[in-house]
Design goal:
By secondary structure, the protein is of the alpha/beta class. Helix content is about 35%, strand content about 20%. Strand 17 and strand 18 form a beta hairpin. About 40% of the residues are buried.
């Protein structure tokens, strides 16, 4: 009975799933009590808690408050959570965030166990896993070509290479260039493949194809893998997959996200790393501070930024702080430097001081980010389930209340399933919201035409292609 419908999943004896299923029980939507009620009897375990999403953090905090008010227990696990966010999630702290000196925060023991608002020291992990990661910062204009060339050169030396890009289009282009260079070198097998077809790993694939890609990525970079390969991906490879690369090439991102990516580098102990890759090494594509400053308008908004900075990761101060810390350290000692990296990149008072130090349009940018966080928090307050009040019918806003803020994606179905690039029929696809802005909700896909390795279609007058590189807007001839 519990497994028959998503709204009843949490009535099962043991439930494993994404955080989105949980937070639907903390939002003012239909069946919220049916979701959250059975959950109250469970031990609630939330893995990979982050600091970067203000809206989701507030909804999760509501979920935990409801759980604890009913006498429940919750266990939160994170390698990248800032102290201020941790204190909020654990019931708040009487001190304002401005009263948390950064010098104290970076010196807090890590790893550690925290209970309620008091820290319970964990045994020092002297014999536990640690990692020294050498960092190389580069700043190049033609990033897709340069990263592809670096990746192929490493693979030709025997390395299993992971490239993570912030934007899907950059990942696609880098993967295409890498496949062409591998072909030209006489070693086409170096390009990441699924069902024998060179491809890329990102979120714009149909669900069955995404499952095949996950499996292929774990085979290419898994515990038992040993053949050189170049795997290009987006944030889809940051967590949940048990992959282990000899070298990591990545766009810069906030430190808490970067630590997740580095978690895929030398993840397992191996005695047979190829020569030159015995030590973990991450190559970070990072625009200069001057280059980043040039993308900030006088009102503090970000325009024409590279690598998805300002959009995928809106807070450029967190990017500058991460870049500075990486340059200062040269080699990251994990877990010794985790607190330093995370607190400097996420602690708002520290970033406020950094904005004043940088001058120009940076203070305005900080104000804009601070205001955006406040707005997201207010939206979450309006959308959250008021569990402390009497049960009442929810406002009928199911179409508008979401587990995460952002432009709504559009799920489309094909009346006749189409053959996908890896030999599996595609019944439906999800189009990113920005691709379908202004297209009526009742619109259906039209002009569906099969082609070798995929198919094309139109949606609301726009042309799309779905092939081994995923979903994309069709190029105009």
């Amino acid at each position: 009975w519990a497994a028959e419908h998503p709204k009843r999943y949490l009535a099962s004896a043991i439930a494993v799933g994404t955080v989105d299923q949980l937070v639907l029980g903390a939002l003012n939507v239909r069946h919220a009590h049916l979701r959250s009620g059975p959950m109250l009897r469970q031990l609630l375990v939330l893995d990979e808690i982050h600091s970067s999403d203000t809206y989701l953090e507030r909804i999760i905090r509501n979920l935990i408050e409801q759980h604890r008010a009913a006498g429940g227990h919750a266990l939160l696990m994170s390698a990248t959570l800032g102290t201020a966010a941790r204190l909020r999630l654990m019931g708040g702290d009487p001190r304002d965030e401005n009263d948390l000196p950064i010098e104290e925060l970076v010196d807090l023991p890590y790893p550690a166990i925290h209970a309620s608002n008091a820290r319970v020291p964990a045994l020092p992990l002297r014999s536990g896993p640690s990692k020294e990661v050498d960092v190389e910062l580069i700043d190049v204009e033609d990033a897709n070509h340069v990263l592809a060339e670096r990746a192929v050169a490493a693979a030709l030396s025997g390395a299993r290479v992971l490239v993570i890009r912030n934007k899907v289009n950059d990942a696609r282009e880098t993967a295409i260039f890498a496949a062409k260079l591998a072909q030209a070198s006489g070693h086409p097998e170096l390009a990441f493949q699924c069902k024998g077809i060179a491809t890329v790993h990102h979120g714009r694939f149909a669900p069955p194809d995404r499952q095949l890609l996950d499996k292929a990525l774990e085979q290419a970079l898994g515990r038992e893998s040993h053949m050189p390969v170049i795997c290009v991906a987006t944030q889809t490879a940051e967590q949940s997959l048990d992959i282990d690369a000899d070298i990591l090439l990545t766009d810069i991102c906030p430190a808490d996200v970067l630590l997740q990516r580095i978690g895929r580098l030398h993840r397992h102990a191996r005695d047979n790393r190829p020569g030159g890759f015995e030590r973990p090494r991450v190559v970070v594509l990072a625009p200069s501070e001057t280059g980043l400053a040039g993308t900030i308008a006088t009102d503090g908004t970000v325009r024409r930024a590279r690598l998805g900075l300002g959009k995928v990761y809106p807070n450029l101060l967190g990017i500058v702080s991460t870049r500075r810390t990486l340059a200062e350290l040269g080699t990251i000692h994990i877990p010794l430097h985790n607190r330093l990296l995370v607190e400097r990149a996420t602690h708002m008072p520290f970033l406020d001081g950094l904005a004043r130090e940088l001058g120009q349009n940076w203070p305005k940018h900080h104000e804009q980010i601070f205001g955006k966080k406040g707005a997201e928090s207010n939206i979450a307050e309006l959308n959250r389930l008021k569990f402390e009040l009497a049960i009442a019918p929810p406002i009928d806003l199911d179409e508008k209340i979401a587990t995460r803020l952002g432009t709504d994606n559009r799920a489309i179905s094909f009346e006749t399933p189409m053959p996908g690039p890896f030999g599996v029929l595609v019944h439906n696809l999800t189009l990113p919201g920005w691709m379908v802005l202004g297209i009526p909700i009742e619109t259906k896909p039209e002009n569906i035409i099969p082609m070798p390795g995929g198919f094309t279609f139109t949606f609301g007058g726009k042309a799309f292609v779905y092939d081994r590189w995923g979903l994309d807007e069709a190029k105009q001839e």
